[in-house]
Amino acid sequence: MQSVSEEKFRQEITRFCHLIYEKCYVASTDGNVSVRLPDGNIMCTPTICNKGFVKPEDMVIIDSKGKRVKGERKASSEMAMHLLIYEMRPDANAVVHAHPACATAYAAAGIPLNKALISEVVLALGCIPLAEYGTPGTPELTDQLRPFVKSYDALLMANHGVVTSGANLEDAFNRMDTVEHFAKISIYTKILGRERLLSSEDVEKLWVQRQKYYGLDESEAQPKDPMCPVTDGLSETISLTRSELIDLIERVVSTLK
Ligand SMILES: [Zn+2]
């Protein structure tokens, strides 16, 4: 016998699976989606299924240890990652894992999305750190994620993809959407050849707003990573006018005389 709420969650996961497929956040059988049910069990997508065609009846229910409780098919092989998030984050009731192209490019390049470039991203996520590589479906992967789960709602997984969590499925999906959009903007700034980061004062003000907006206490709202002007000495771009450049060259030449 299936409860009304169970059917509602089956429909909801299906809807968001179709959405992440339509938005090209996954290809082929990539990715997995889950929700925490009111009884504490987890409903998730089955292993080896295309998210564009998955149906409500395909969903699997597992307990908090990963043991199958209900369903014809096997749960996704990456459920350990979801279970880790549910265990460490009592506030999370949904997890989305996908491989959106731009954010996954950052993950493959080994670059975190941790720069204070866009005010709304700072407000929504703070930043998106990069967890080091671990073989999918093994404890290696969860071990790499563990240090970040408590403090971040969205993570890049090196050479793999992205995982986001939220109070509900829409929340977790929105975070995936924000990460991919931000990755795209970050790539465009590379094409333009210039990044102008928010100052630490600007970020400080955003953290005060974030605190009010999400009703967080001060410790929860503080930045967990350096996000403001990160100077690695290699990637910084400066711009000068023609006359400033001539003036600079003339001054250098005059010191050599
Ligand atoms: Zn994956």
Structural key phrases:
elongated; 12% strand; alpha+beta; 257 residues; 8-stranded mixed sheet; binds zinc ion; L-fuculose-1-phosphate Aldolase
What is the CATH superfamily label?
A: Class II aldolase/adducin N-terminal domain
Would you count the extended β strands for me?
8
Strand content: 5-15%
Task: Indicate the CATH class.
Answer: Alpha Beta
Shape: elongated
Based on helices, strands and strand pairing, what is the structural class? alpha+beta
Low-confidence segments, given as residue ranges, are: 230-236
Largest sheet: 8 strands, mixed
Task: State the domain count.
Answer: 1
Number of helices in the DSSP assignment:
9
Mean pLDDT: 90
Range of helix content: 40-55%
The bound ligands are: zinc ion
Widest sheet: strand ordering: 4-3-2-1-5-8-7-6
CATH topology: L-fuculose-1-phosphate Aldolase
CATH architecture: 3-Layer(aba) Sandwich
> Helix-strand pattern, N to C?
HEEEEHEHHEHEEHHHH
How are the SSEs ordered, and which strands pair?
Layout: H1 4-22, E1 32-36, E2 42-44, E3 60-62, E4 68-70, H2 79-88, E5 94-98, H3 101-109, H4 119-125, E6 130-131, H5 139-149, E7 154-157, E8 161-166, H6 169-192, H7 200-214, H8 218-221, H9 242-256
Parallel strand pairs: 6-7
Antiparallel strand pairs: 1-2, 1-5, 2-3, 3-4, 5-8, 7-8
Helix pairs in contact: 2-5, 3-6, 4-7
The chain binds zinc ion.
